């Protein structure tokens, strides 16, 4: 046991050192490749000669060997310049274009407000000023040219916010997502203690620090390193908390084990998880489906999250990890892929094996992003959608899952309407036995959402609600089951 603890500590120290080296090397290249020009920001750091502006000093660090990434089917090795492009430039410098850091270049009208935590000074027409002073003068109307600082475009919101549009729903192809997987992913396992002496269930999750490294290394415009990886758990309309696992998702896993396994997986099953994020409840259902007799039933998983980056960086990797760990002992290629501790190599053989397993065992994975809306439900049940009308002799069992999805009044309203619309469509189109399983905190302090408000609202819409679990230790949480009332 002591050796295991020491090994984990050593791995943690290595990861911290790697992150520190990556950032330090990026700052080194930034300082050595540019000279101060109009509008340029200067990092807060002292160099060897104690030059505050950091132009004559040098920082010498050992080189860092970065991970080989796979992007759109092509392998490439990222470098320090690429890392800096995705980590520092977006904090306030204009896009450098094809050349990483041409020196010198002029300030652009697209420059964002500088972050005073990262930069100490900014050069203006009157000379160098502190960042805080420059921002204060801008707010007071001094040195502010409206023609060069246009109003920012409205950001799409995950929930109905006055004056803000929603991010339109979109369907993502599994094959395209697999082609953008990195060469390897680091992971840890979450051990869930099941109720009624059900034992322990291990659910793998991609490490958050590994997601950070990939975001810092990639150049794709849709990957925003700051979203979901900073100090904020949620930014409405920007990031809805999908990179992290929340307490109620574990509660939902326990409830599904007690009420939904294994009997419902003996027939065709549809699992729809809204606001999936790390998708712990769906991963549990996926494990139980793999443990069932192969080829006996169809099992469809629909994973929906507001952020496409969450689906690409967390949700799909977690499904691959769950499949790989489940078949690790039976497949030689997987044993080789797990050669490094707590890491899985995503070789073409592994990714092809994952797709083949889904196809031959009657399982499908579908991914949707965007805000909850009527258009979202229409896409879900369109002819090309994941829940198009099935041609089955026996109606399937449908599970609609949601954990920590009602943490604000806006979220509560949109989630309730979406749940009711899906339950009605399931009943009308496939005649399935559909139920919604919702896990949440009894009260979200400071933001206004609560499980009781959800129950009150959905009960007014001809829906039967059953409280199946209540957690009183620590933060009060609960799980409810919702089903449409039978027609009179």
UniProtKB/TrEMBL annotation:
Molecular-function annotations in GO: protein-L-histidine N-tele-methyltransferase activity
UniProt enzyme class: transferase
GO terms (BP aspect): methylation
UniProt record similarity statement: Belongs to the methyltransferase superfamily. METTL18 family.
Record-listed E.C. numbers: 2.1.1.85
Compartments, record wording: Cytoplasm; Nucleus
Cited PANTHER family: HEPATOCELLULAR CARCINOMA-ASSOCIATED ANTIGEN, HISTIDINE PROTEIN METHYLTRANSFERASE 1 HOMOLOG
Chain segments carrying region Disordered: 127-164
Basic and acidic residues: bias regions: 134-148
GO cellular component: cytoplasm; nucleus
Keywords: Cytoplasm, Methyltransferase, Nucleus, S-adenosyl-L-methionine, Transferase
Protein name per the record: protein-histidine N-methyltransferase
Coiled coil: none
Record InterPro entries: Methyltransf_16 (IPR019410), SAM-dependent_MTases_sf (IPR029063)
């Amino acid at each position: 046991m002591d050796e295991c603890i020491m090994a984990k500590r050593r791995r943690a120290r290595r990861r911290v050192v790697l992150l520190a080296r990556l950032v330090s090397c990026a700052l080194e290249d930034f300082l050595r490749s540019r000279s101060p020009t109009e509008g340029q920001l200067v990092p807060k750091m002292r160099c060897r000669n104690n030059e505050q502006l950091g132009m004559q000093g040098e920082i010498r660090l050992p080189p860092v060997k970065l991970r080989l990434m796979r992007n759109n089917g092509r392998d490439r090795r990222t470098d320090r310049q690429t890392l800096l492009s995705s980590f520092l430039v977006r904090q306030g410098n204009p896009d450098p274009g094809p050349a990483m850091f041409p020196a010198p270049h002029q300030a652009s009208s697209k420059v964002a407000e500088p972050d005073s935590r990262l930069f100490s000074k900014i050069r203006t027409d009157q000379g160098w000023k502190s960042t805080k002073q420059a921002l204060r003068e801008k707010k007071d109307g001094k040195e502010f040219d409206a023609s060069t600082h246009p109003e920012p475009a409205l950001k799409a919101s995950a929930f109905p916010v006055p004056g803000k549009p929603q991010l339109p729903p979109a369907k993502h192809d599994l094959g395209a997502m697999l082609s953008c997987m990195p060469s390897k992913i680091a992971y840890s396992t979450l051990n869930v203690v099941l109720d009624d002496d059900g034992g322990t269930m291990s659910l793998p999750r991609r490490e958050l620090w590994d997601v950070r490294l990939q975001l810092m290394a990639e150049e794709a415009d849709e990957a925003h390193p700051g979203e979901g990886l900073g100090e904020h758990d949620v930014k409405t309309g920007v990031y809805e908390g999908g990179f992290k696992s929340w307490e109620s998702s574990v509660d939902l896993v326990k409830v599904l084990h007690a009420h939904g396994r294994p009997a419902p997986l003996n027939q065709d099953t549809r699992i729809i998880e809204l606001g999936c994020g790390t998708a712990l409840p769906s991963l549990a259902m996926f494990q139980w489906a793999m443990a069932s007799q192969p080829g006996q039933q169809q099992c469809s998983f629909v994973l929906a999250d507001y952020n496409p980056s969450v689906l690409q960086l967390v949700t799909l990797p977690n499904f691959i990890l769950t499949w790989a760990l489940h078949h690790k002992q039976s497949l030689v290629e997987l044993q080789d892929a797990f050669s490094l501790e707590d890491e899985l190599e995503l070789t073409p053989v592994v990714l092809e094996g994952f797709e083949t397993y889904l196809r031959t065992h009657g399982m499908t994975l579908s991914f949707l992003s965007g805000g909850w809306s009527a258009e979202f439900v229409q896409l879900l049940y369109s002819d090309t959608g994941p829940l198009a009308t099935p041609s089955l002799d026996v109606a399937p069992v449908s599970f609609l899952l949601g954990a920590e999805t009602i943490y604000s009044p806006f979220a509560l309203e949109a989630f309730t309407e979406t749940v009711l619309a899906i339950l009605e469509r399931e009943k009308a189109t496939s005649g399935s036995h559909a139920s919604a399983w919702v896990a949440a905190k009894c009260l979200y302090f400071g933001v206004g959402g609560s499980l009781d408000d959800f129950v009150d609202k959905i009960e007014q819409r001809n829906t039967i609600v059953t409280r199946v679990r209540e957690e009183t230790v620590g933060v009060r949480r609960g799980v409810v089951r919702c089903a449409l009332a039978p027609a009179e």
